[in-house]
Amino acid sequence: MNGNWNITEKFNNEAALWDSDPRRRALAEAVAAALIARCTPGKAMQALEAGCGTGLVTMAISPLVKQLTAIDTSQEMLSILQDKIRSLEVSNIETALLDLSSPSVTFEREQSFDLIYSSMTLHHIRDTAGFLCRIATLLAPGGTIAIADLEREDGHFHDNPDEEVHHGFDRTELTKLMNAAGLQDVSFDTIYTVSKKSSEGKTTEYPVFLCTATKR
Ligand SMILES: C[S@@+](CC[C@H](N)C(=O)[O-])C[C@H]1O[C@@H](n2cnc3c(N)ncnc32)[C@H](O)[C@@H]1O
């Protein structure tokens, strides 16, 4: 990752067609189902999605919690979610255009969350350790963080070789980063497998984990 890649531009460009990809919808459904099973979102909870995109996961979680803050760096992705919120008259999701990888990120009001989750966002964030520390500080004591992302992969998950991403995560290394961020009880489940065909016609399986951890 050398810093030349413009991630906001990428997701702004992809936003309009994001939900039309059945593979993305199926993955988001699997993430939401695993989150519900593992983290039991409840009606008293304040939740936050880091990197919500068009809200594929957040729209499934919001009916189960009190309030949900959906954060993204792409205004175009957020606009799609804002359209869904308006048309379905959802009253408990607020959206925010914020960069959670920035050390100077600030919230309008002082708030902590009972559940913070992200789906397929961590591999796009250069400073994994800094990002985990930042979201851990937003977590209330007793709260849960849940991160769905790729297992360490061969570097071919993303079609564009110029894209600056982590090639998935090694579970042991991610556990160390979670612990360094002050999170305990780190555990992993394999929740989905993405099958992707390369331009040469070779199909590769990419397992996706859900990593959960708590703040005591
Ligand atoms: C692969 S998409 C996943 C979107 C959504 N979670 C889903 O499952 O469909 C990653 C999202 O993370 C957002 N993102 C990337 N870096 C971010 C950051 N530093 N802070 C907040 N959002 C970020 C991108 O704009 C994009 O919408």
What does the model show?
With 216 residues, the protein is α/β, with parallel strands linked by helices. It has a single domain, classed as Rossmann fold. The protein has six helices and seven strands; from the N terminus they run ααβαβαββαβαββ. A seven-stranded mixed beta sheet has the order 3-2-1-4-5-7-6. α4 (75-87) links the parallel β2 and β3. α1 (7-18) packs parallel to α4 (75-87). The radius of gyration is 16 Å and the shape is globular. The protein starts with 6 loop residues before the first helix and ends with a strand. The mean pLDDT is 94. S-adenosylmethionine binds at residues 7, 11, 24, 28, 50-53, 56-57, 71-74, 77, 99-101, 119-121, 124-125.
Short description:
This protein has 6 helices and 7 strands.
* CATH architecture assignment: 3-Layer(aba) Sandwich
Gyration radius over CA: 16 Å
DSSP strand (E) fraction? 25-35%
Strand order of the largest sheet: 3-2-1-4-5-7-6
CATH superfamily: Vaccinia Virus protein VP39
Question: How many runs of DSSP E, i.e. beta strands?
Answer: 7
The topology string of helices and strands comes to HHEHEHEEHEHEE
Query: Which descriptor suits the 3D outline?
Result: globular
Strand count, sense and closure of the main sheet? 7 strands, mixed
Count of discrete alpha- or pi-helical segments spanning 4 or more residues: 6
Q: Given the helix and strand composition, which structural class is it?
A: alpha/beta
| Average predicted confidence as pLDDT | 94
CATH class wording: Alpha Beta
- Heterogens: S-adenosylmethionine
What is the straight-line distance between the termini?
33 Å
CATH-defined topology:
Rossmann fold
Helix content range: 25-40%
Number of discrete domains: 1
